[in-house]
Amino acid sequence: MDSELTKTILDATGAEEIYPLGTIQTLWSGYGSLDRYGLVGAELGSIIVKHVKLPSKGNKHPRGWNSDRSHQRKLRSYQVETAWYRHYADRCDAHCRVPRSLALEQHKDEFLIILEDLDSSGFPKRKERVGKNEMVACLKWLAHFHATFIGIRPEGLWKIGSYWHLKTRPDELKAMDDDALRKAAPLLDRALADAPFQTLVHGDAKLANFCFSNNGSKVAAVDFQYVGGGCGMKDVAYFISSCLNEHECERMEKTLLDAYFSALADALKKHHPEIDPAAVEAAWRPMYALAWTDFYRFLKGWSPGHWKMHGYSERIAREVLAQLLP
């Protein structure tokens, strides 16, 4: 660690010394790393440092998408994440818990985000497989997040949240071998963007971005590079797709959507008592299939052999296309 970074961490935390506790993960496409550091003489015992250093253009993208457009999208994503922690994150309460930011720095080719260590704050578990109760805990987080930010303009964030948004993914659209889905893509995009009760969406609400309490009943979320405006169903569909296989999706769809909308009703009563939860559900529940199909559209161009390209996804997409296309 260089002396400037050390000084930034010491100043942000009030620590007397810091020491490395290991790299949690490297960032996508070689854009830096996420590391944990221990603190001596500070209120906090440890912190998380997200250090982004933009790579040279010679670096290879894991899936071959090595373009200036891809680079600019990633650059924008770190600008968005910095803006999120600076201007929005402190609006999240215990029902949609996020890490507290301790320092944010941005330079021409570097970003530094110093965060509370959620492991030390009661969320030490990461899960690759979850049961119904843990999924419901995550859906409750999403419901409270969406209710908190409903009606908020995404200034400084992505105008349209989610990393698969059509406008930012023309290469994947061009690569897609499905004329009907390609024709429907702008219709899907417009329907989701025009859905009533726009809010902020997390934009990458997969299971891997949730941190669990020891008993799995409470969660916090991380990774806000693609937070922006949108319909809450984009997060819900994407989250469910990250947890379940095709047979589980068919079996649990209604149960999980019911759980989400029940939690959303409770959250709206708290944050926006003037909004009728039944009206939001009536507007959003039909958007679930469109949101699922929109992500399926992205996958079909980005990674057509992906494990999520299964019968459930194909059925939903066929039904949506039958509604959208003459």
What does this protein look like?
Helix content is 44%, strand content 16%. The protein contains 10 helices and 9 strands. The chain has helices spanning 3-13, 68-87, 132-149, 170-175, 179-193, 233-243, 246-271, 277-284, 287-302, 311-324, and strands at 17-26, 32-40, 46-53, 101-106, 110-116, 199-201, 210-212, 219-221, 228-230. Strand 7 and strand 8 form a beta hairpin. The longest helix is centred in the last third of the chain and has 26 residues, at 246-271. The chain is globular. The N and C termini lie far apart (59 Å).
Mean pLDDT: 93
CATH homologous superfamily (4th level) name of the largest domain: Aminoglycoside phosphotransferase (APH), C-terminal lobe
Biggest sheet, spatial arrangement of strands: 1-2-3-5-4
Number of strands: 9
Q: Report the top-level CATH class of the largest domain.
A: Alpha Beta
The tally of domains stands at 2
Give the SSE string.
Answer: HEEEHEEHHHEEEEHHHHH
| Main sheet makeup | 5 strands, antiparallel
Number of helices: 10
Give the low-confidence spans: 61-65
- N-end to C-end Cα span: 59 Å
Cα gyration radius (Å): 20 Å
The level of helicity is: 40-55%
Strand content: 15-25%
